[in-house]
Specification:
This protein is of the alpha+beta class. Helix content is about 35%, strand content about 25%. The strands form 2 sheets. A 5-stranded antiparallel beta sheet has the order 5-4-8-7-6, sandwiched between helices. A 3-stranded antiparallel beta sheet has the order 1-2-3.
């Protein structure tokens, strides 16, 4: 009908007497064949497939197929809705989900002082088994007592959308109580009138130790050079 033709952006002349499978991938064509066989056995089937018109675009359709009466089981009718936009958003979501789960950096989302989402890498950094263990935990539970005030003030500024650096270091606390240095890159977004803070976290303890060792080494040799009687340059 015109609605379908307009949706997939082809003319009636282009589709008349053409086989539907010409517009389907090989896997979708096999899938459609199985669904039609089910319909022939008396079941009305829902189906989701992708049309590939010759204009290069792809369209996702969802609907039902039924057998036309009096056609000896070889003619079918389909009523569909175009779910291309929804499918596109779903694909984007799956990409972000894959990135979230596969990232070696710890990623977590905080709102109103509590974690609402965390990947397993974030959990590992703070000494937990998986991200689910951290849901509903307060962000201050992941901070040392010495840095608790600094962390609270920082996230309060972020939630109030006030000026605060997008990179932040603090002394973190693992589940067993041991302390380590962590660096957090922060961004935020708003949804359903709530502000959410996204944290990308790394354990930078070794880097901090290396920096401290360099500072101590520089100080030691500075003291030596400043207190010897020989000329030195």
């Amino acid at each position: 009908n015109p609605k379908l033709l307009n949706s997939i952006k082809v003319s009636e002349a282009e589709v008349n007497y053409r086989k539907l499978i010409e517009y389907l991938s090989e896997s979708d064509a096999a899938y459609l064949k199985r669904r039609l066989e089910d319909v022939e056995h008396g079941r009305e089937e829902t189906i989701e497939f992708t049309l590939n018109p010759r204009n290069g675009e792809r369209f996702y359709l969802f609907g039902k197929i039924s057998q036309l009466p009096g056609t000896n089981g070889k003619q079918f009718a389909g009523v569909f809705v175009d779910i291309t936009e929804k499918k596109s958003e779903e694909n984007k979501l799956n990409i972000f989900k894959s990135l979230f789960e596969a990232s070696q950096d710890g990623i977590a989302v905080e709102s109103e002082g509590k974690l609402v989402l965390a990947n397993d890498s974030f959990a590992e950094i703070f000494g937990y088994k998986n991200g689910k263990e951290l849901i509903e935990k307060e962000i201050l539970q992941l901070s040392s007592n010495d840095d608790a005030l600094k962390v609270a003030e920082y996230f309060q500024l972020k939630e109030q959308k006030k000026d605060a650096p997008n990179r932040f270091e603090f002394l973190g606390k693992k589940s067993d109580g041991s302390l380590f240095f962590t660096e957090v890159s922060v961004s935020s977004f708003e949804a359903d009138k709530k502000n959410y803070i996204v944290m990308v976290t790394r354990d930078v303890t070794e880097r901090k130790r290396a920096q401290q060792a360099i500072r101590e080494s520089e100080e030691k040799y500075r003291n030596i050079t400043e207190n010897i009687d020989d000329f030195l340059y």
